[in-house]
Structure formats: structure tokens, C-alpha cells
Write a structure and sequence with these properties.
The structure is a single chain. The chain is built from 9 helices and 13 strands. It has a 7-stranded parallel beta sheet, sandwiched between helices. A two-stranded parallel ribbon has the order 7-10. Strand 5, helix 4 and strand 6 form a beta-alpha-beta unit.
């Protein structure tokens, strides 16, 4: 990214968006927008699904060089009841932002999810594999991808990721460490597999895709994979938590409103080629995150 450029970052108060702000390259000014006030958020309360509000946002931001769109409806289970709202946030907003970015002639990066896949392939998913979402969340995120690529194919880059955690926001490792203070026995699902991904690793990759990405879709996740049970065990070990017994269980023992993909590991070779390196192995990234707390 060239120096003295301004980039709009949506969802800037969120777990990922806040890290994107902190990871802005030298000489790049990240302009944060979110519905709520938070550190680094300069534009508050903009409805990204409202075309008028978005175009006014672009006007206030002045001459910008790009957009990184991390804002999303991420309440996976609640989306089963609120699919219309989830579609507005995850789908319509992507179409509106694509129109504004196209009018401004600037590239945009949209953050996607492994939930666009059904998890039944038995191998890591490539960017060109056929999506088949199992949940309202997955359907709305896929709709957002397609809306943006249809509206602005030459300037849109989708970056799908999974199992996010980081220094801010609610996430699985933090939940496990919190529960470990209250309970001596925990049961964790051991039949869903993915790649835990730290925002400390993902955020810089989004900047690289904005600057140099030429493919329409990239996959971005930390190297390696595990189950939620495996992640829980590694979290306790890395945080040196003792005296807590973790037992594996099946998804059926903890039924949730939204179906999850069973094996949603992403093949990130395309991103590795672009950057010249892969994201860190998930165990190393987890320890780096815990050391940053």
C-alpha cells in the first residue's frame, strides 16, 4: 500500500476490525467505522446496507485508496431466527459497499467464512470448490460474496477465514479459560475440525490482499487443524492451566440451532503464494496470542 493513503475499515470495533486498524501499514491511515463507539472508530452509526449513508460516508472519508470490510452479523445460531436481518448485514451491505467502491474506483477486501461449505468433502477446501452452506449464517455470507463479485468483479477480493480469536472480543479460547476458573470438568466437541486462526495473523494478510491480491477469492487460516476439543486442550496447556479435566464429546451431545460443517479446513495455498509465506501454525499463533494478553 502506497504511503499517505486512506483506507476505510468497517466493523472497526470488532475482534477482527480492531486488529486491522492496528495492523495498518506505515504511512496508511485506517479510517474505522462501526455501529458502536470504540477506540479507533471515527465514523459511528453508519448503516452499511443503506446506500445513501454509505455514499455519504465515502464523501466524508475523502479520497480513499481501498476498503477492508470486516463488519458482519456473526451470531450463528440466532441467525436461524433472524435470517432477514443477517441477510441485510451480511448480504445487502456487501452489495452496497461494492457499488460505492466501484464508483470510487478503489479495491475492496471482504471477509468471508468457512461456513459457506458443508464440510463433507473430507479434504481442505479450495477457493473454487462449490459452496453448500448448512445454516442461515452461511447462506447470508455466501450471498454477500456473490453480490459483491457481481457488482464489482474487477475490484472485489473475498478472504474466507475460520475459527477466529484475538486480543479483543469474545471467542473460544477466551471462553474456555473463563470456564476453567469456574469448573474443574469440561466437555468439548471433538467431531468438528477446522483451523483456529488468530486475528494477529489474519489482519496483516488482509492488508496484503488489498494491496496485491488479483484473484477473486482467497482462503486465510493458520496452518494445521484440530477439533474444538484439541483447541481446548492446547489452550489450557499453553496458558499453563492445571486441575481442569477436559472430556471429548459429540456434536449430538450439544445440539445447536445452526448446523456446523464437520470438516471445514481451508486450503490456503493461493494466499501463501501471494505473500510468500503461510500464516503461522495454529499452535504457535495461539501461544503468541496468549503471550499478548
Amino acid at each position: 500500500m502506497s504511503q499517505n493513503k486512506r483506507v476505510l475499515v468497517t466493523g472497526a470495533a470488532g475482534m477482527l476490525g480492531s486488529q486491522v486498524l492496528l495492523s495498518a501499514p506505515d504511512g496508511v491511515q485506517a479510517i474505522g467505522t462501526d455501529l458502536v463507539e470504540a477506540a479507533g472508530v471515527q465514523e459511528v452509526g453508519v448503516d452499511l446496507a443503506d446506500e445513501r449513508q454509505v455514499f455519504e460516508l465515502f464523501e466524508r472519508a475523502g479520497e480513499i485508496a481501498g476498503v477492508i470490510h470486516t463488519a458482519a452479523y456473526t451470531a450463528v445460531d440466532l441467525a436461524e431466527e433472524q435470517e432477514e436481518l443477517a441477510m441485510r448485514v451480511n448480504g445487502t451491505a456487501c452489495a452496497v459497499l461494492a457499488g460505492a467502491a466501484k464508483a470510487a474506483g478503489v479495491p475492496q477486501v471482504l471477509v468471508g467464512t468457512d461456513f459457506v461449505f458443508d464440510g463433507e468433502s473430507g479434504r481442505a477446501y479450495l477457493e473454487d470448490d462449490e459452496p453448500n452452506p448448512l445454516s442461515a449464517y452461511g447462506r447470508t455470507k455466501l450471498a454477500g460474496e456473490r453480490f459483491a463479485l457481481e457488482a464489482y468483479p474487477e475490484g472485489t477480493r473475498i478472504v474466507r477465514t475460520q475459527w477466529l480469536y484475538g486480543p479483543r472480543g469474545k471467542h473460544f479460547p477466551g471462553t474456555m479459560l473463563g470456564l476453567a476458573k469456574e469448573r474443574k470438568q469440561l466437555k468439548v466437541v471433538d467431531d468438528q475440525t477446522g483451523s483456529p486462526t488468530s486475528t494477529l495473523e489474519l489482519a496483516p494478510a488482509l492488508w496484503d490482499v488489498l494491496e496485491r491480491g488479483e484473484e477473486p477469492i482467497y482462503h486465510a487460516a493458520c496452518e494445521g487443524d484440530c477439533t474444538w476439543f484439541g483447541l481446548a486442550c492446547e489452550t489450557m496447556a499453553a496458558a499453563e492451566v492445571q486441575g481442569v479435566e477436559i472430556a471429548p464429546c459429540s456434536t449430538d451431545e450439544f445440539p445447536r440451532p445452526a448446523r456446523r460443517p464437520v470438516h471445514s479446513v481451508l486450503d490456503c495455498g493461493r494466499l501463501t503464494t501471494l505473500r510468500g509465506r503461510a500464516l503461522a501454525p495454529w499452535q504457535d499463533a495461539l501461544r503468541t496470542y496468549l503471550g499478548s494478553e
